[in-house]
Design a protein that fits this description.
Number of strands: 6
Radius of gyration: 15 Å
Strand content: 25-35%
Distance between the termini: 6 Å
Number of helices: 3
Largest sheet: 4 strands, mixed
Strand order of the largest sheet: 3-6-4-5
Structural class: alpha+beta
Shape: globular
């Protein structure tokens, strides 16, 4: 698999994402459903957004790993949250280290939505290649 990222503007270096990702010679593509803070029994979390993001990341990492892929090969990561303000003020110290830990260079869209399932406040949707 060959991966090339494109980020033509200097400000893009500060966004924890890139503007575009091109992949060639892909052996497989994993389209992940949005992952949220559900426990092993499928019960949604009612904790704060920080705690939910931590569980959501763990769930996404487990899904990707058990599917035979690697988080470093995430090429698209969409973030859905019920409050972009809360996400930026209380969760970046969790989100950014996740991106850095795996060396992810991904296209990203961050969307504020009116509501998510049950008491959930954040959801991560990934596309991964190998």
């Amino acid at each position: 698999m060959e991966k090339q990222v494109f980020d033509p503007w200097a400000w893009g270096k500060n966004t924890n994402s890139v503007q575009a990702v091109e992949v060639k010679n892909v052996m497989g593509t994993l389209y992940c459903s949005g992952q949220v803070a559900l426990d092993a029994n499928g019960i949604p979390s009612d904790a704060d957004m920080r705690s939910q993001l931590t569980q959501t990341i763990k769930n996404l990492e487990q899904l990707i790993s058990e599917s035979g892929y690697e988080c470093k090969n995430i090429v698209r990561l969409n973030v859905y949250t019920t409050s972009t303000t809360d996400f930026f003020t209380t969760c970046m110290d969790i989100y950014v280290p996740f991106i850095q830990k795996h060396g992810i260079q991904q296209a990203t869209t961050l969307l504020e939505v009116k509501a998510l399932f049950a008491t959930l406040t954040v959801e991560l949707e990934a596309t991964v290649v190998k």
